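Schema walkthrough. Field components (list of strings):
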Amino acid sequence: MAQNIYDNPDFFAGYSQLPRQVEGLAAAPEWPALRAMLPELAGKRVVDLGCGFGWFARWARSAGAAAVLGLDLSQAMIARARAETTDAAIRYAIADLDTLELAAGAFDLAYSSLAFHYLADFGRLARTVHQALVPGGAFIFSIEHPIYMAASHPHWTADEDGRKTWPVNRYAIEGERRTDWFAKGVVKYHRTIATTLNTLIETGFALRRVGEFAPSAEQIAAQPSLEEELERPMMLLVSAQR
Amino acid sequence: MAQNIYDNPDFFAGYSQLPRQVEGLAAAPEWPALRAMLPELAGKRVVDLGCGFGWFARWARSAGAAAVLGLDLSQAMIARARAETTDAAIRYAIADLDTLELAAGAFDLAYSSLAFHYLADFGRLARTVHQALVPGGAFIFSIEHPIYMAASHPHWTADEDGRKTWPVNRYAIEGERRTDWFAKGVVKYHRTIATTLNTLIETGFALRRVGEFAPSAEQIAAQPSLEEELERPMMLLVSAQR
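Field assembly_structure (string):
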């Protein structure tokens, strides 16, 4: 079973205060890029893998989705997500994405935000999603960018001009990475960009678009701290189609 | 017109001594990964974009290609390539990839090794190649990895444990990069991974495989200096299909 850091009280307390958890999708700077990858949602059946507090599930319904299934490993997350809606077309369930099973052809869209870097076996998940989508169905997700999470000590440094610089090492050495983020020893799994994309292709998906979040000039003007995200790729966004 | 650094005498003298120029494909550590992406070549018409001394053109003929067109901006390269073969099915021509034109449907395979990071406009080149391939034709190339070439000062550093570390900054800021490599002020053009892959998808190619060269244990045993290439992605390899 995957590490369930989200039900660690210290982690949950810190995580729950992130702007994107308090304010929702509008506080996630990559959301406009991810939203632009989404198909028309009217009448669609959607599954959200790692749904957290349900911000995307509720948005998908407001965008016309017929039904949304939100899945998360965290009991605290699912409890809070359930408390946030009375919409009978949104269903939440506790599920471990490492052992997930989904009914064949049950969904038109599989969506996931910043969850798959916790998975030990992305190939298994990709196959599960592929068979769960209708032909032509969309698989759209974000992960921490492999460049962001590869290094032994992932933190800003400076180059000889004092420019903010992100360190990369161990890039080709895939596997576990432990970091301290609201709690000690959060376990993530590094895979190269090539591994992630080739896994999708080999599973039978066609790649429709790849994104590497970078803030727009407008986003930087509104939130100057985002400017550093021009220096490094922090998130990888993928649009694939069955 | 593109900068023609290869006809700079200092550059040419140094470049000509690179193992891969002296010994050919076997001295290029990424060649096994690139070769594995190639289709069966028997009877195929091949164009090599940035053919240099013609090592790939001669190999393609030995692998059964019906005809090979090698194109390069450098007069010195093309002169040397012509001197290295008497094979009438290999033709060489001087061409600037930034303004290249190719006949429609003239090729089954377009190949390029470490040339496109010199191009200001990859989109134009991708469209030129797409229309020059037959339907189902393959477009297989390597470039310097965007992570390798993004930073203002691309050179090894060390992290707090002394581990070799590659610096990344200016990743989202695409455009010209000037480096000193056998000559001062060699001009390259940085594009993100997303831009390169999306350009291919938008041009009508299907992505078949993405590679990020990393040396095998056997390669490191034979050439220990390659071990550092586990730390950073140095080359991006792409297999696309019209």
